Amino acid sequence: MYDINALKELLREPKEVMITTHHKPDADALGSSLGLAGYLKKLGHRVTVITPSDYPSFLAWMEGNEEVLVYSEKNDALVRRIVGESQVIFCLDFSSLSRINEMGDYIREAKGTKVLIDHHLQPEAFADLNFSNPQAAATAELVYDIIKAMGDGDKIDTGIGECLYAGIMTDTGSFRHPSTSKNVHLIIADLLHIGVNTSNIHRLIYDSSSELRLRFLGFALKDRLVVRHEYRTAYIAISAEDLKAYDSKTGDTEGLVNFALSIEGIVFAAVIIDRSQAVKMSFRSVGDFSVNDFARAHFNGGGHRNAAGGMSIDTLENTVAKFESLLPQYKDSLNASIKK
Ligand code: 5GP
Ligand code: MN
Q1: Which domains can be identified in the chain, with CATH numbers?
Q2: CA-to-CA distance for 70 and 256, rounded, in angstroms?
């Protein structure tokens, strides 16, 4: 399916390699990047992982985390230099260079060989080597499969395995989404076999909330949840003041959208948050209703059929009003989207 020989050829000699992933990396973005980094280091490459922004502290346990370079305006020159000097640039868990802010422009102009490893829909054609598979449950699944296809399965140790497990576990919703294939379970069986402590990883990621984060969740569900049964839709809009009142940290709102989706009869859920530069949106659906199409059509976003994101530079109030005004035109498809 993929040109694994071209990748083998590319990685035959030790090289300067950089790996990057999407803005506000989640466990799949960071886990696939650090898992791949651990493997490439074993092949003798010099590897730098650069993220376009910070990421939640509940991911900081991953092996290689201490070496991650987080892009900021302050280290712009350094990041530009690394992008310019990299012979190979891996782009993981995003399908369009616009998802990585300024770094997208640097990478577009860079002379290094670009390799895309991703599972989002509609990949942009910017890479020289393309390992894009929307059927995959997680980018970490693709990284595992690629390492195996390279004939290097024995190089996957517990450090690499933990990173990959985190990505697959979170992107499959702890193995409950329809993307949880036989291949996923076979990979997890193998990771268990090499000694990955799966329940510990689950605890590190899901049971590490601050008290304030939990109180924020309670507040959001009690005071900010709006349910529109006629459109089988539920959404939560969070203002900048709300975030401030609960001293919200990166990652604190992750998972919130799933609570809205868990209401009986609801097939479309959104979380709409007033971040400082823009209003950021998370969409989830069950069944045929494509939040990827919805996000692309109306909120400059995209993702997967049942999980996507988008943004708006309008105010929170206007963004919510626009979201509400769009629902009637989707009434029929929302009512036809079956909760399977
Ligand atoms: P989340 O809601 O967890 O931030 O993102 C859900 C899915 O949509 C993820 O796969 C994420 O990469 C993708 N996504 C989130 N925001 C955006 C966006 O603004 N643009 C695009 N193209 N994809 C997004
Ligand atoms: Mn992913």
Answers
A1: 4-206 (3.90.1640.10), 211-336 (3.10.310.30)
A2: 25
| Probe residue for ligand 1, chosen from 20, 23, 26, 172 as the CB with the greatest number of ligand atoms within 8 Å | 26
- What is the rounded distance in angstroms from the CA atom of residue 189 to the CA atom of residue 211? 34
Q: What is the distance between the alpha carbons of residues 272 and 314, in angstroms, rounded to a whole number?
A: 12
Write the pLDDT tens digit of every residue in 53-71: 999 999 999 999 999 999 9
0.90 surpassed by pTM: yes
- Both tokens of 92, joined, read 């993981």
Measured in Å, residue 292 CA sits from the centre of ligand 2 at 14
Cβ 216 vs Cβ 252: under 8 Å: yes
Name the 3-class secondary structure at 53: coil
Ligand nearest to the CA of 303: 1
Instruction: State the distance from the centre of ligand 2 to the C-alpha of 317, rounded, in angstroms.
Output: 30
- State which ligand 1 atom lies nearest to the alpha carbon of 301: 20
Angle of helix 158-171 versus helix 27-42 axis, rounded to 10: 160
Residue 21 near residue 150, CB atoms below 8 Å: no
